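Supplementary Methods. Inverse-folding protocol.

Structures were first reduced to a discrete structure-token string of length 145. This string, shown here, constituted the complete conditioning input.
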């Protein structure tokens, strides 16, 4: 009986992933990433006082977000069309795109490990992480009009 239940559960999970929408999934991950950056950007700009706990929460969130960014799952062949700002360059140079995603993951994890406790240390880590955003958007994301 236990084997039957496990088999049914496995089929249910497999079946539900077959209906996943990679465009919607990657948009959700990127929206979360933007929200996390937005929570601490005012500190970096001097618009809000530095709060080490808030900064660490955002860095941890960015690192966790980067772990969810599975390029093979989120950018399969055929997902370059539709309601997406992803440029064809992703599929034309998947190796470079995967390298960019990996660099973001590594830099976000390093920022968490650095555990910045003052504004200057946080700015250094935050800028290292967010520089990845700009360089990736330049090459792999359609510019907003």
């Amino acid at each position: 009986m236990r084997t039957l239940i496990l088999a049914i559960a496995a089929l249910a999970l497999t079946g539900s992933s077959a209906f996943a929408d990679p465009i919607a999934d990657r948009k959700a991950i990127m929206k979360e990433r933007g929200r996390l950056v937005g929570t601490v950007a005012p500190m970096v700009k001097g618009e809000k006082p530095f709060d080490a706990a808030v900064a660490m929460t955002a860095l941890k969130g960015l690192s966790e977000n980067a772990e969810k960014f599975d390029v093979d799952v989120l950018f399969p062949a055929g997902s370059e069309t539709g309601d997406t700002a992803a440029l064809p360059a992703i599929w034309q140079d998947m190796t470079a795109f995967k390298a960019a995603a990996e660099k973001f993951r590594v830099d976000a994890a390093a920022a968490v490990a650095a555990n910045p406790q003052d504004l200057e240390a946080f700015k250094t880590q935050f800028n290292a992480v967010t520089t990845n955003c700009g360089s990736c958007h330049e090459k792999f994301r359609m510019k907003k009009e």
